[in-house]
Design a protein that fits this description.
CATH superfamily: Brix domain
Helix content: 10-25%
Radius of gyration: 14 Å
Structural class: alpha/beta
CATH class: Alpha Beta
Strand content: 35-45%
CATH topology: Rossmann fold
Number of domains: 1
CATH architecture: 3-Layer(aba) Sandwich
Distance between the termini: 22 Å
Order of helices and strands: EHEHEEEEEHEEE
């Protein structure tokens, strides 16, 4: 999965992107900069990613996580759901943190989140954990809580 933010992301959006990058194995963090969005989609297709996670900000705060699906021919479509963030708390990332090799996703919304991320989930010996309940999303990296967010899952407009 390729993870990116908007053109001029606030600090919290950059930290959320980095936390997701560290938690999701085999993901790639790409700063958008001044590039058009389609160039990121092209890069994701070249890297053979099936998903792009875009962190949208509003009023200087991360507002939502949207996911795009990329097929084998480089064509894309919006994933059926997006995650709207109402409150975000960042606890800081572990010093000299490395990207996780194993991720476990648990909770009431685990199935949906696994589908959005397209990362295999392990049942034991995880490096990172994402707990996805119906109203809360928590990210743990190497046993330490990095992100806690109050969220709402929305269907993406067709």
């Amino acid at each position: 999965m390729l993870i990116t933010t908007g053109k001029r992301p606030p600090k919290n959006a950059r930290l959320l992107a980095k936390a997701l990058f560290l938690a999701v194995p085999h993901s790639c963090l790409e700063n958008r900069g001044k590039r058009p969005f389609y160039s990121l989609l092209s890069k994701a297709a070249k890297l053979r990613f099936k998903r792009v996670c875009s962190i949208h900000s509003q009023n200087g705060k991360p507002a939502s996580l949207s996911f795009l699906c990329i097929d084998g021919e480089g064509k894309w479509s919006w994933a059926p759901a997006r995650i709207k963030i109402s409150r975000l708390r960042l606890y800081g990332l572990p010093r000299k943190a490395r990207q996780s090799q194993r991720l476990r996703i648990k909770g009431a919304r685990a199935r949906l989140l696994r589908e959005l991320i397209k990362s295999p989930s392990t049942q034991h010996r995880e490096d990172s954990l994402i707990s996805a309940s119906s109203k809360r999303l928590e990210v743990f990296i190497h046993g330490k809580k990095a992100v806690e967010a109050e969220v709402e899952y929305e269907k993406q407009p067709a």
